[in-house]
Amino acid sequence: MNTRELMNIALRLAGLENEPYDTTISVEGENIQKILIGVDMETPEMLLAKNLGYDLVVSHHPKADETVIDFHKVMDIQIDKMVEFGVPINKAQKVLAKKSKSVEINSHVSNYSRVSSAAKLLNIPYMNIHMPSDLIGERFTQKYLNDKLGDNPKAKIKDILDALNELDLYDKSLSKPVVRCGNATDYAGKIAVLFAGGTNGGTDVYKSYFEVGVGTIVAMHAPEDVIKEVRQQNIGNIVVAGHMPSDSIGLNEII
Hints:
Udp-n-acetylmuramoylalanyl-d-glutamate--2,6- Diaminopimelate Ligase, Chain: A, domain 1, four-stranded mixed sheet, 12 helices, alpha/beta, single chain
């Protein structure tokens, strides 16, 4: 197997035709037999891989070059997700714009070639698979919760937590699913699982979901400013499923 074949497997599983902006092959490789793969793979992990005889290092999170500089562009897929739940497309674009611009500003000043330069100097193939993995995890978790709770209009947030903890990845994680907005005894209402799209879309995006009838957002992670605003406005519930176990769902499917 080579790096292109591995990338094509990930794209196919995610239902994508082309590499999204946050996913790329930095250093191509052939005759791949041993792969060191993880959520955050940088220079230390490359040195480890080199010493242990691995043929390829695969990071989930984008660490190099265009995947860093253009990271904000992948956030546009959140518009499609909002539309799927009933947010008008023009509104979806506008509520995402503030966070997308913030991400672009922060990415622009990054040391974007550090990791790819290390891979080239070490002569070790290196790639990352971000959005394909997140899409796989998001679709799996949405379907899983729909199947578990969709027939129960009075499902509560506790039921979401219990359902997630039935999965080994969450049950065995140190960062287990937690309620960040709302209470475990609150009704869940309609559930939206938001794992893909680069990073959290911000308060305006969350508010747009609640305004079209979503009762509970299940996210990998939620920043403090979003949690604070949603709490103050008392407009919906947020369950943080846990970053590492949620990332692992899609990665494990690709593996």
